[in-house]
Amino acid sequence: MENLRRAVNEIAYSRNPRKLSPLPRSLIPLLSIASSLYKLALSLRYSLYRHRFFPIHRLPVAVVSVGNLSWGGNGKTPMVEFIARCLSHFGISPLILSRGYAGGDEVNMLHRHLLGTPTKFGVGANRAAVASQLIQRYGYVDTRESSWYRKQHLGHDLNVSLDSENIGAVVLDDAMQHWSLWRDLDIVMVNALTLWGNLQLLPLGPLREPLTALKRADVVVIHHADLVSEHIVKEIESTIRGIKESIPLFLTKMNPTYLFGVGNINAKIPLTALHKATILCVSAVGSAESFVKKIEKMGALYVDRVDFSDHHAFHVKDIELIRAKLEELEGKFGSKPIVVITEKDYDRDPEILKQLYPFKTFVLCSTLRVMAYKGSTEDSFKNFLKDHLKLKLPVEN
Description:
Blueprint: H1 2-12, H2 22-50, E1 62-68, H3 76-89, E2 93-98, H4 105-113, E3 120-123, H5 127-138, E4 140-141, E5 151-153, E6 156-158, E7 167-173, E8 185-191, E9 219-223, H6 230-243, E10 249-261, E11 264-269, E12 278-283, H7 288-296, E13 302-307, H8 316-333, E14 338-342, H9 343-348, E15 361-371, H10 378-388
Helix pairs in contact: 1-2
């Protein structure tokens, strides 16, 4: 199965199909048919929602959708965390809704990162039903405009203060194609490193929707913008503005902050621990390239990599493969290499990674930051969020 996923990924991001290896090349006719069927089903489904044959549920609070047009690695989960922190700072208790895909590694990571904030979590494919249940449990407060100072909970209207536990906004993780919920703000994430691949729809290409779907976006965020040239950023901007000229545009990056060891999550290890070391990057994420590029900038002696498909659950045979690579590197450089993984990989299954002992396994922790670009800054993104949602912020007691 992993070999098949690699082959499909190779097709999706190939610039020249003639240079594909035999297995991917043999899959193209079948994937082309499947892609055509997917396009038909997508168009029909969208039409049914647009003409209200399928219901679109409105929640009683502001809703922010964070999504993308292509599979994996676009920075959706870090952006969801960033928005949840912004809302918490505004005095609003956010509810994050996730489908909990592939074991919920992203939700587990968000839980860890947002401890100490009033953020609540709902997991399930039917996010409208999950939201309704949690709103009924916790109550809600409409934070938009003059509604801020009143809340509804079990039929009672009460004064609202900054420490209110009532849900004040909903953040939808990976929801651009989740049309059953009305949203007040649609954020679309774009991976500057991989972009839209061969521009084909799934499964022949990486696109969940055609690029024209950007017309539905309220804002586009170019993620990993620090890992590409200014020329490429301008080309991406030109493509986006060719579809929707006046759309607000922001750039983001992941700032590495510290490491922690598998088995000792509370001990923060400085990034300098990777200086002049032999590193093996192991990842099962949507954008392994961005992860490896960050490690390469940390002054390591040598960086190698073992990549798996996004959300891949590690098994014993994977650990054996990783150990074999580590032993090869140890023989080549004469010292034990260090394994570095992403937080998503850690949260998927922390226990199995302990089997790499006596090799050290570190987890890289990073934070999303908004880059300055053509007058756009982190503060202007926060102001855009507040203004677009028409939030009326409370006055602290």
